[in-house]
Amino acid sequence: MSSLTGTREASHAYSWYEGDPDTLSKQLDNFLADVPNTINDKDVPITGAKIIIAPHAGYSYSGPCAAWAYKCLDLSKAKRIFVLGPSHTYYLRGCALTTFAKYETPFGELTVDADVIQKLRDTGKFQDISRRNDVEEHSLEMHLPYLHKRITQTLGADHPAPTIVPILVGDNSGPEEKAFGALLAPHLADPDAAVVVSSDFCHWGARFGYTAYAAGGDTADLQSLTRRSATPADPPVHESIRLVDQEAMDAVASGDHDAFVDNLRRTKNTVCGRHPIGVTMAALEVLARDAGGPDGDRFRFKFVQYQRSSLVQDYSDSSVSYASAYAIV
């Protein structure tokens, strides 16, 4: 008998995104319609693009950016979808699994894959997410309406929906990320699997404790702006943020997990989903090695969109960055 019980409510509906299914459906359709039907000279969804990175802020902020990842996502063979996100509601070391049997969305429920959850739990490497923290956490929930929409568009409303495997990824070291990546790699290699990695990028501003600035565009010598700092112009703060984020995205796209860890260690970029990204990169490194090395576009992320919630001018401003990427497996 499964140890999973109950249905996790869509706790952020009507606040972080539309709760009415018709209104939400039209909004997501509009976001997706604004994305080209060809990306990187490939028709979307991109064949084999079973892993994506997408943001998890309120849809009015990050929904248009997330649409780029979801339009790339290939769910044509998916029978289960892993959703990896960071913990915002409590400090977590390691990784943790849901105890709910289903997750509610405005479009209907998605069923948790009890067999895979049990296999992961049997490794002894995973904790359980407390049910209160599970309900309060938004990093997993924000992807479920998009997933439901894309499942229906790809497979049809009458086709059995893939199950989901929600996993919170905690504050792990580089070697710990590699260990979890190696553990998840066989699951990600399964032709029936797809993966959503939940992450926003730079959170810039005093309220986030991060005001790094690259004077002259030199990210090798980051300074921290203070309330006494004059308004920078070379470059503007928002351009400095873009440069710092671009270095992080370049490290992710390199396929080198160590390069990403080293980049964040140097810049302290506040990529909130850095650990889910790190675990997935480590898993992709295993898959690439097993396949005899990187093969063209396979096993590495390609970024397709980058946006910011606002264009910061000075210390008093703040912004959150959003990025979308896909990886072919």
In a nutshell, what does this entry contain?
This protein has helices at 21-33, 59-72, 114-122, 131-136, 144-155, 174-189, 237-253, 257-267, 274-290, and strands spanning 7-8, 38-39, 42-43, 49-54, 80-86, 95-97, 102-105, 108-111, 126-128, 163-169, 193-198, 203-204, 212-213, 223-224, 301-308, 319-328.
Protein described:
The protein has 329 residues and is an alpha/beta fold. Helix content is 35%, strand content 21%. It has nine helices and 16 strands. It has helices spanning 21-33, 59-72, 114-122, 131-136, 144-155, 174-189, 237-253, 257-267, 274-290; strands at 7-8, 38-39, 42-43, 49-54, 80-86, 95-97, 102-105, 108-111, 126-128, 163-169, 193-198, 203-204, 212-213, 223-224, 301-308, 319-328. Strands 4, 5, 6, 9, 10, 11, 12, 15 and 16 form a nine-stranded mixed beta sheet that branches. A three-stranded mixed beta sheet has the order 1-7-8. A two-stranded antiparallel ribbon has the order 2-3. A hairpin with a 2-residue loop joins strand 7 (102-105) and strand 8. Helix 6 packs across helix 9 (274-290), helix 7 runs antiparallel to helix 8 (257-267) and helix 8 packs antiparallel against helix 9. It is globular. The mean pLDDT is 97.
